[in-house]
Amino acid sequence: MAAERELDKRSASLVVAYGRRRIGKSRLLRQAAVGRNEIYFQATRVSSVLNMEQFKLEVARVLGPSPVLASLDNWESIFHFVAEAAKAKPGTVVTIDEVLYLVDQDSALLSVLQRFWDSGAARAGNLKIILCGSAVAQMRTCWRKRTRFTGA
């Protein structure tokens, strides 16, 4: 399967997956990550701060609790924390499902993610980031026009 091949690569990857609701995107992505160190987070329509706190809880569940992680208060710092942890667990997969719920609450998130990606921090641990969404038109607009991610 294409998703598994991407996750098997010995390099960092940023994958954008989108399609209509209820067609199996999440199940496909979860299945591809079986047996891998996976941080799976499904965003909800709550504030950015609440989503961030829930994401940190999932990171701590997978990577172990950390006072450093608990003290972080912005997305970029959290992504860097995960990238650093991925050095010890190469190929860590971070799946953010319904990513547009995050973007709705924090319009800067895509540019923050781009800056993180462009920093090269994901390379050392071959971090895999998967962004998934169901609002097809919005996903196409976000990824084709607003944000350009370069390869790792």
Automatic annotation (TrEMBL):
Segment forming the signal sequence: none
Gene3D superfamilies hit by this protein: P-loop containing nucleotide triphosphate hydrolases (3.40.50.300)
InterPro entries according to UniProt: ATPase_dom (IPR011579), P-loop_NTPase (IPR027417)
Domain ATPase, chain residue ranges per copy: 7-140
PANTHER family assigned: ATPASE
Protein name per Swiss-Prot or TrEMBL: ATPase domain-containing protein
